[in-house]
Amino acid sequence: MLKYSKARGWIATDKENVAEPAKEVMPAIIETEPKVPPLPVERVPALMVALQAIDKPVARALRWTILTACRTGEALGATWGEINGDWTVPGRRMKEGKSTPCRSCRRCAK
After folding, report:
1. What's the total number of domains in the chain?
2. In this structure, are residues 27 and 41 in contact, taking their beta carbons and an 8 Å threshold?
3. Is residue 36 included in any domain, yes or no?
4. Within-domain flag for 78
5. What is the mean pLDDT of the chain?
6. What is the pLDDT at residue 76?
7. Pairing label, strands 83-84, 86-89
8. Among the four 36, 58, 76, 93, which has the fewest Cβ within 10 Å?
9. Burial of 82 (C-beta count, 10 Å sphere; 0-12/13-18/19+)
10. pLDDT computed for residue 48 by the predictor
11. Is residue 105 domain-shared with residue 66, that is, in the same domain?
12. Nearest CA to 80 among 52, 49, 108?
């Protein structure tokens, strides 16, 4: 959008801060408190036990995310074809665009 604006002459020079026009029309971002506080590390084992008792895909996905320390989107997009003892997240789903091996553990296979 900014390149388009510059090409149309709406942004005058290369040295001009291209974000200035946007600041005039966009509302300020208001910092808010997180809606759900982070879980204290001491409570993680109890959470894992509780998740293991829930036989639902969402509980398994959350356990996988915690055990592999991956991003939620990476876990939810995982396919069995990516997992063969270890898990390699394809570059098309990674933020940096590079395939990345994800260290898994024996608990992930359960």
Report:
1. 2
2. no
3. no
4. yes
5. 78
6. 85
7. antiparallel
8. 36
9. middle
10. 93
11. yes
12. 108
C-alpha to C-alpha distance for 2 and 19, rounded to whole angstroms: 8
- Domain assignment present for 58: yes
Q: What is the pLDDT of residues 28-82, one digit of tens each?
A: 666 666 677 889 999 999 999 999 999 998 898 899 888 888 888 888 888 888 8
pTM score of the predicted model:
0.59
What DSSP designation does 20 have?
Answer: H
Q: Is the pLDDT of residue 19 over 90?
A: no
The mean per-residue pLDDT over the stretch 13-37 comes to 66
Residue 45 has which token pair? 């084992």
Amino acid (one-letter) located at 77: G
Q: What DSSP designation does 15 have?
A: T
The domain in which residue 9 lies consists of 1-26
Going across the sheet that includes 100-102, the strands are 83-84, 86-89, 100-102
Amino acid at 32: T
